Automatic annotation (TrEMBL):
Any GO MF annotation of the entry: NADH dehydrogenase activity
Function: Core subunit of the mitochondrial membrane respiratory chain NADH dehydrogenase (Complex I) which catalyzes electron transfer from NADH through the respiratory chain, using ubiquinone as an electron acceptor. Essential for the catalytic activity and assembly of complex I.
Keyword Translocase: yes
Species this chain originates from: Tipula cockerelliana
One matching Pfam family: Oxidored_q5_N
Family (UniProt): Belongs to the complex I subunit 4 family.
Transmembrane region(s): 20-42, 48-73, 85-104, 110-132, 139-162, 182-203, 215-234, 246-265, 272-294, 300-321, 375-399, 411-434
Record-annotated NADH:ubiquinone oxidoreductase chain 4 N-terminal domain positions: 1-103
UniProt-listed Enzyme Commission number(s): 7.1.1.2
Protein name in UniProt: NADH-ubiquinone oxidoreductase chain 4
One example of a Gene Ontology biological process annotation: ATP synthesis coupled electron transport
Amino acid sequence: MLKILFMLLFMIPLCFLKNLYWMVQNLLFLVSFIFIFMNFYSNNWGSISYFMGCDILSYGLILLSVWVCVLMLMASEGIYRKKNYWNFFLLIVLFSLIFLYLTFSTMNLFLFYLFFESSLIPTLFLIMGWGYQPERLQAGVYLLFYTLFASLPLLVGVFYIYSEMMQLEFMMLSKDIFSVMLYLSLIFAFLVKMPMFLVHLWLPKAHVEAPVSGSMILAGVLLKLGGYGILRVMPLIQEVNNTFSWYWVSISLVGGVLVSFICLRQTDLKSLIAYSSVAHMSIVLSGALTMTSWGMSGAYVLMIAHGLCSSGLFCLANISYERMGSRSLFINKGMLNFMPSMALWWFLLSSCNMAAPPSLNLLGEISLLNSIVSWSWISMFMLALLSFFSAAYTLYLYSYSQRWLVMFWSLFFYSGIKSSMFIVNITLISFKFINFKKSCLYVMN
């Protein structure tokens, strides 16, 4: 594990040499190939060195981190082309990858907390330094305070666990802890990082104001830190979780449906994709908290699949923004006529986003639906709505942005929802007009 870390550290001087932007990207490709051929295909920890190691859970997420950082550099070619402080941008991307690599490969709970929080700093610099609008300062403050407010109780909980067990190694955290306050302090930071509905407001703000690289690493990797943390601390909290998981699963599923409705009313490309991430992470959270084999493996698969799919959608939204100068769906419609080859990528990634076969998302969602319904059959209603509206807003995004003239043909099942909303809006407007007319007559009399 240390050889990968040293490779990443020795790339830092290359950031300050002239015209080595693509060299760093190619070296990151090389890192990913070296890591692929390292053998971690067992559930046990392997390649252990000092404080680092890797099991199958770490393996996929480290590989995802390297891939997303390589694609970030590819999507941010405009920063290099315009000479917009690309040396510092490259440095921040490398630091972000190093912190994520350390987060996923450490075997100690305190070091996990340390790198978990450190990975927030490069993302904050990306939003503050290369964001598009002055509102990025407010988005950075939202991101910082939401995460710090939830993470400080986690630090106290880690210290308490050390005082009880005198060690913090993941592979030895098997003792159940029956303290409700400790359970809340351990899990709340991960719920905010996922993010769970009600504590999700920082995510759309950060996505909308972030550059394409910030959006890709937020959606691709940083949202997965919460799920990874829950899967790691689950042996400690499983007894208390049997009592409290009802609340989190209920909030997540109901929130996922409500966020899907919000997606149907979005006109901003990045905002729609950001809210769809909240809806997908709600299923991941519900599946992980069922503590079944189906749920945990499904959550792991969907985290990796969503990381690739969502970061790709943000990349496509940025390409449209650079060409058209706007992220509005009203302006970016009928793009099939202008960029037909990009429409294929829109179609493929939208299909993955709605979990169409044969995508990896489908495998993850089938496992999660199986685990959540077997855990409680009442959840079937919310899961059905969630799956339906997930397809609806993804088709809305694809059809409106690519082929707006035939949108209603491709959305025949979605048209009923829109028409009913239209009827409700017309009814409300007519009532307002009648009241306005009555008030005018009253004034005239």
